[in-house]
Amino acid sequence: MTTTYDPADRYAPDTGRVLLSGIQALVRLPLDQHRADTARGLSTATFITGYEGSPIGGYDLQLLRLGRLLDDHGVRFVPGVNEELAATSIWGTQTIPQMRTDLDGVIGFWYGKAPGVDRAGDAMRHGNYAGTHPSGGVVVLAGDDPASKSSTVPSASEGTLADRGIPVLAPADVQDVLDLGRHAIALSRYSGLWVGMKIATDIADAFEDCAIDLDRVDPILPDEVDDVPWHREAPPTLMTPGGSVEREASAFGERRRAVLAYLAANRLDRVVVESSRARLGIVAAGVPYQAMRESLRLLGLDDTALTGLGVRVMRLAAISPIEPGGITSFAEGLDEILVIEEKRPFVETQLRDILYNIERRPAITGALDPSGNPLIPIDGELTVARVLPALRKRLAAHNIETDTPARTIIALDDPPARRVPFFCSGCPHNRSTVTPDGSLIGGGIGCHAMVVFTDDERRRAASLTQMGGEGAQWIGQEPFSEATHLFQNLGDGTYFHSGSLAIRAAISSGSHVTYKLLVNDVVAMTGGQQPAGTRPTPQIARQLLAEGVDQVLVCSDDTSRHPADAWPAGVDVWTRDRLEEAQERLRSVPGVTVLIYEAPCATEIRRDRRRGRRPLPTTRVVIHELVCEGCGDCGVVSNCLSLHPVTTEFGPRTRVDQASCNLDMSCLEGDCPAFVTVEVDPDAVAASRSIVPPIEEIRDPE
Ligand SMILES: Cc1ncc(C[n+]2csc(CCOP(=O)(O)OP(=O)(O)O)c2C)c(N)n1
Ligand code: SF4
Ligand code: SF4
Fold first, then answer.
1. Which residue owns the Cα nearest ligand 3 atom 5?
2. pLDDT tens for residues 227-236?
3. b/e sequence 631-640, b meaning 16+ C-beta within 10 Å
């Protein structure tokens, strides 16, 4: 029995089967491509860059854990400062001046969530028009959060990518991530276009036992495109404004036709249920494909039943552009094709374009039924609960009877219970987001955005922008508002990503605003990454003053963290209990002021303690049950989830939940005499770190 776990075990083997999540499959992909290239005698390197964000928030963290394995496979991982600049770097990988002589090409992987795809638009359009190196290739890993589970708005990137001329593949499971990923690189090299992969939440988070043998994918590269020999050159390192018109023509002309030739030759779209006398065809890709299959199963229709009842099913791999040959033969003899896809009609309109001129064309339904009534929801996520009723209706229209599902399917958009997200125990945002009475507050992106869920007037945000827009909304509101000042929250991760520009905009427009720059040392919401481009807080203060900020003031949980002489002149450093006074002072200063609130993320501290990177304190906070009156005021003051109401033999009391307490001691700063601290035995603390016995002490089951 293997007793040690090494993350590399998922990535080092190159044959057999491995359990992988969608994210882990994305980590494997560049390694597999390098293995395949090496086997073909091609010397390639890989450059990965992008910006973290769900649903591919953990991608960068997993890559960083690989260490030497990345080096062994020629992978260079450089976290981007933001998505747009990262996309520009990817463009660079395909147009390398004087490429190293030991290299045939460099593969570029860009990753980011859908808002990152949006903000990287100009760079992606430039890069895609310029094109890819024939031995390099670019893959855009676009993280889509259709239900807006951890985003400010729901998203689907395919339309955005298609507008830039970037073909899009849509994996429907983890195996697809591996296999279509390899095709994405081959397609990009062959066609000269960047290729997108739509990584939706349910794919990124899924786990699957995957086949990893390299020869699973053996791309066919047609010699001809539209009967003309196909030959590729490396793209120009300089794309002049005049030359870009030609590049546009080739991106949407010959290079796009090459994509279609590749898709046709490799038959990536599959008819998974065939029926010679079919009347109804169902087409889906990605996560909606899985929702459709599960719905059919619940309706009692397996593949044999579907074949017998005259239903064909197609699993699309490429959702942009759609390969016309496959869909045209799929449509033969059908009365209707039902397209099951998320958001607005995208595949559906392409099918109409392709099939409109064929002699006996089927009706195409999806967002609307044949009478023009709404059928498949065009918002949110396509869960089984939302797909099943639509499927049932269209099956009934073809006289196909279905079972009533044995269990009730509950729509996720109407859950029986909701849990409002809240700050971790000891989170600095618990206190830093409080403002003086009567303040107008702007929310920002990051964990502190949870202020939009609170009823507490002292912290509740009146607005919330996209990442990097923090405070710019006020520029358009201020001239027309009775309010004269805004407190604008801004995380340090966001500051380095793009938020510093919003401060510049506020200065240039003459806004009256106080930014609350919440320095917790990490990009907390996406897993605790170091912000790319980060600087020590005193240097941030210098940057801000150099930009023209009128006053900078610091409130800190530890005023001795930086040497006193590290701070620029005129910057006061106060203890965090003076937050209210600091805010009163800054809002009385005309112009743009910045309050830097410095206190580390409590969860990051907890992780560090678990991993032995920080000592575990020996001081614990407890509430004396004979003194406590159970008023709950400490919970209101500290906003901490670890303060639990309990019933004791003395009546209702408050108790510190020691398991979740993050030991930041902020609850001690209230006036309550019931709070006491105790010192615990350091040896017991050390022992408590390892709650799991050593592996050799675990006995085999008898
Ligand atoms: C353009 C864009 N890229 C990425 C994200 C994903 N995202 C959401 S919150 C967040 C972290 C922000 O970090 P920070 O500003 O440090 O705030 P914290 O979470 O640490 O409070 C990120 C990267 C996003 N929403 N928009
Ligand atoms: S010390 Fe107090 S405020 Fe801090 S996490 Fe523990 S209970 Fe919460
Ligand atoms: S992860 Fe860190 S910043 Fe986010 S809520 Fe928890 S403690 Fe606060």
1. 423
2. 999 999 899 8
3. eeebbebbbb
